[in-house]
Amino acid sequence: MPSGFAKKTTGLTDDTEQRQPLCNVDGVLFRTGDPIPTEDPCESCKCRPPGFACVLRECEVKPHCKAVRRDGQCCPEYQCGCEQDGKPYKDGDVVPSPQSPCYVCFCQGSSIRCTLVACQFRGDCEPRYVPGECCPRYDHCPPLVAHQERLPL
């Protein structure tokens, strides 16, 4: 809605004096195509006799990012990145888990998301656990052979 105006008027054409279509917005005259000031930075209005036409700007949405709004700007700026222990990470980067090596963490937008690591265990030999690693190693085990079915000929 035009700024400083309590109500929106239809802005009837006033071409009797200047023979050019004008918009009358609460006593202020605008020529065809002229921008009409608004209080809302997301709204853009132009003179389109006999009134005016306004459109709302659509803002890009970035999921998982932190939106920072600034006075006088329609759309927010987004902060898409993470920080852990003072070290910055970009969106999508692997982030060391602060909890344990059994979690894998990623920077997603502006937050760190972690999931539990899925380990594979074998019942046919002894596992070897390494400090600082989540899943056991099977260094001295026979190689795994894929199960193959034999069909009669």
TrEMBL record:
Principal place of residence: secreted
Matches recorded under InterPro entries: Kielin_Chordin-BMP_Reg, VWF_dom
Keyword Signal: yes
Keywords from the named record: Secreted, Signal
Top-level taxon of origin: Eukaryota
Cellular component GO terms held in the UniProt record: extracellular region
Gene3D superfamilies noted in UniProt: 6.20.200.20
Sequence ranges assigned to domain VWFC in this UniProt record: 82-142
Subcellular location: Secreted
PANTHER family: CROSSVEINLESS 2 (PTHR46698:SF4)
Name of the protein described by the UniProt record: VWFC domain-containing protein
Protein species of origin: Ixodes scapularis
